[in-house]
Design goal:
Strand 1, helix 2 and strand 2 form a beta-alpha-beta unit. Helix 1 crosses helix 5 and helix 4 packs parallel to helix 8. The protein folds into two domains: 126 residues, Rossmann fold (3-Layer(aba) Sandwich), CATH 3.40.50; 195 residues, no CATH class. The protein has an eight-stranded antiparallel sheet, covered by helices on one side. It has a seven-stranded antiparallel sheet with strand order 7-11-17-18-19-13-14. The chain has a five-stranded parallel sheet with strand order 2-1-3-4-10, sandwiched between helices. It contains eight helices and 22 strands.
């Protein structure tokens, strides 16, 4: 598998303290009266978890941390994971949850509905090099420029009625009627407007895009970036995998002879036909420092597009009637990425050759 391995060290990088302070102040609007629950597991180094707890305490907040068992199968199986009742009980007391382990869970939905805000520094899971990722993608670039561009991209999706993705001579089309764009910028708090922006956010920033109603999406796409599925965080095909869709369902897998076969066999053996539903989300990466690593940062690679498959029901529960349509429910969530697609919104070029055209 071709992948980039970021810096993994056994000591605390002082820069991590700076970036976590920025996260709490700029993205979370953390106040001294807030209670912070830090959830982690053994995948994330203890010193990283301690920094999130310690910086919250330094800002005057009450902060505790809870370490959970590593869930089976990694990110793909999060929708079907089960969590201790003690963790759900602790979440009811928190104003802010820093989640480095869970991602998808009923108690997370309940916490949000009770007014708790959730921030996932590793996009729902932790990892051995979370510190390197956050420093590189948040401290060593302008996160506010990323946020503002993500807002503009989200607005373009909201205004559009039709999306076309062109890869390797194939065409994939998506009806955007009645679908609003979302910035996916990791900010719970909007520091420009001085108001809350979202109850639930992922880092690093950003991956603006749309949630896709069930039954939408037709055509073929050639995946040359990453494929997140069991048992890996992701694999990169040696040659593109061609995925063919009809009315929001994956109906055919071709291309890379090894990985295409593995994916097809895995889907067949799941016993969960809803894993073929999709895309359930479509997002554009706009972080210039994001890399193809074994971290969810690969969804933020500038000019790439990532689509999810299978489950997205948790977002439906959080957004409720505000969403206006149903989202797919499954026991798994898996993703695929195209690195430099050509994307048209209402037949106008929006992304091409790694460039995003959202300012005209």
């Amino acid at each position: 598998m071709a992948a980039i391995t970021p810096d993994v060290s056994s000591r605390l990088k002082p820069d991590l303290i700076t970036v976590v302070h920025k996260i709490y102040v700029d993205l979370c609007n953390l106040q001294p009266e807030h209670k912070v629950l830090v959830i982690s597991d053994a995948r994330t180094p203890d010193y990283v978890v301690a920094v999130f707890q310690g910086v919250a305490q330094a800002l005057g907040a009450e902060a505790i941390r809870v370490e959970c068992q590593i869930p089976r199968g990694g990110a793909t199986y999060q929708p079907g994971s089960h969590w201790p009742s003690m963790l759900a009980a602790a979440s009811t007391e928190a104003d802010l949850i820093i989640d480095m382990a869970v991602g998808y869970a009923e108690f997370i939905v309940d916490a949000i509905n009770n007014g708790t805000r959730i921030l996932c520094p590793g996009d729902g899971i932790g990892g051995p090099f979370m510190d390197d990722v956050l420093i590189r993608t948040m401290l060593h670039t302008d996160i506010h420029a990323i946020r503002r561009q993500a807002d503009r991209i989200a607005q373009r999706f909201t205004e559009a009625k039709h999306c076309t993705v062109l890869t390797e001579g194939d065409e994939f089309t998506l009806d955007l009627t009645g679908v609003d764009g979302a910035a996916g910028d990791g900010f719970l708090w909007d520091p420009d407007k001085k108001e809350w922006k979202s109850p639930w956010a992922f880092l690093p920033p950003a991956q603006p895009g749309v949630l896709v109603p069930m039954g939408r999406g037709d055509g073929a796409v050639n995946v040359d970036g990453t494929l997140l599925y069991h048992p890996d965080y992701h694999e990169k095909p040696d040659s593109p995998i061609q995925l063919t869709f009809k009315q929001g369902r994956l109906i055919k897998i071709d291309g890379d002879p090894i990985l295409a076969t593995r994916l097809e066999n895995w889907l067949d053996q799941l016993g969960d036909d809803s894993a073929n539903n999709g895309p359930v989300h479509l997002n554009i990466g706009n972080n210039p420092n994001a890399l193809l690593t074994q971290s969810q940062e690969w969804e933020r690679v500038y000019g790439s597009i990532t689509c999810g498959m299978g489950d997205l029901s948790m977002l439906g529960k959080i957004m409720g009637e505000e969403l206006g349509f149903s989202l797919s429910k499954s026991s798994v969530h898996w993703d695929w990425t195209v690195l430099q697609p050509k994307i048209l919104l209402d037949d106008k070029v929006f992304v091409e050759k790694g460039r995003i055209f959202c300012d005209d």
